Write a sequence for this structure.
């Protein structure tokens, strides 16, 4: 039996009649980036991330058992209390991909109601928190049908399902650090789902902070699907995939030793490499804005002047994630307020820190 087959559920009897499950699931920020995938939603390289806390999606699933199995998936979708038809195709596709693993979903009429704690269209990817929340409530329903399902297996399968919705979403179920993609030094790692980082982590990384500077709140210039596709036939792709594995090996040593200078080097290099990949693909893109570069420059100056362990990372966009140890929180917030806020759209930023993943509310 291959791995994905082990997630196939045959449960189609003992289905609860009706109920509601509500959960919250966070966003995450990759330290080593996932960029490049092969069908279906399998990563070309392993990635590792901090699970966030404040930035999350709250999703409520109301379910009502049907008399007969539906021919089409039956669901209504509300976002922040309003019916959102534009979100349907993504959820429809998600249900199509997960049906094999959770066949009971055809026996229900669902009402899904979602909201984010971070500002809408803030340029913060909501697919990680949104898809992991949805996968989690579906798995909670499976747990009601099959109470013998262990918490561990439930989380693993929720991560597996979330991956089919959006790759990075599979890293949001657990925390504070998760790994997705097979890495030779991490025996439990898998391309099919993310796992909680299994090794020792130095106290320097406890409650690590992430302040997200909203530089550009516009529509994504490049969708992640298009972005990942750019790695097919990319002249530097193979070397990049190897480099990601090497950087995870470096992080394993760094997490143990607490070496923050080495941490900064890996994390900033990963962010710039992700953008370098986009600048050197065909078609090519520059996703940073002038203010992104100004912020990076200021962070480097501040680090030089103060010996702070502040650093930055980027997603596939212009916003900057400022990462720093909890011990520096006060000074860094002061620095952000006085030096960096001016580069943010409408002065907006979000203070977050590492968190523990999805949970019921
Ligand atoms: C740059 O997970 O959004 O944030 O699998 O197509 O949904 P899909 O892509 P997505 O890609 C995120 C890429 C990234 C880096 C990362 O989070 O690892």
């Amino acid at each position: 039996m291959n791995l994905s087959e082990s997630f196939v559920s045959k449960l189609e009897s003992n289905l609860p009649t009706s109920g509601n499950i509500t959960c919250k699931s966070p966003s995450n920020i990759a330290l080593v980036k996932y960029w490049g995938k092969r069908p279906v939603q399998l990563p070309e390289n392993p990635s590792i991330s901090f699970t966030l806390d404040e930035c999350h999606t709250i999703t409520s699933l109301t379910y009502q058992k049907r008399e007969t199995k539906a021919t089409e998936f039956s669901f209504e979708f509300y976002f922040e209390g309003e019916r959102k038809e534009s979100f349907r195709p993504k959820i429809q596709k998600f249900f199509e991909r997960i049906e094999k693993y959770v066949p009971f979903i055809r026996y229900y009429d669902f009402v899904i109601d979602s909201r984010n704690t971070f500002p809408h269209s803030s340029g913060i990817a909501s697919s990680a928190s949104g898809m992991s929340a949805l996968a989690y409530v579906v798995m909670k329903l499976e747990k009601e049908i099959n109470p013998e399902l262990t918490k561990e297996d439930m989380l693993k399968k929720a991560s597996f399902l979330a991956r089919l919705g959006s790759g990075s979403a599979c890293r949001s179920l657990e925390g504070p650090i998760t790994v997705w993609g097979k890495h030779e030094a991490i025996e439990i790692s898998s391309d099919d789902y993310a796992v909680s980082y299994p090794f020792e982590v130095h106290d320097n990384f406890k409650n690590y902070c992430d302040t997200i500077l909203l530089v550009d709140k516009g529509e994504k210039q490049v969708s992640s699907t298009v972005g990942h596709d750019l790695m097919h036939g990319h002249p530097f792709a193979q070397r990049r995939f190897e480099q990601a594995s090497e950087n995870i090996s470096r992080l394993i040593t760094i997490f143990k030793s607490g070496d923050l200078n080495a941490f900064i080097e890996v994390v900033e290099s990963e962010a710039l490499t992700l953008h370098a990949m986009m600048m050197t693909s065909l078609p090519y893109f520059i996703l940073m804005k002038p203010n992104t570069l100004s912020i990076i420059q200021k962070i480097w100056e501040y680090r030089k002047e103060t010996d702070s362990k502040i650093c930055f990372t980027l997603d596939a966009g212009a916003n900057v994630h400022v990462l720093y140890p909890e011990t520096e929180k006060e000074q860094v917030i002061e620095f952000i307020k006085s030096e960096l806020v001016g580069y943010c759209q409408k002065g907006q930023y979000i203070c977050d820190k590492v968190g523990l993943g999805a949970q019921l509310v």
Notes: The two ends are 35 Å apart (CA to CA). DSSP finds eight helices and 14 strands in the chain. The chain has a mean pLDDT of 95.
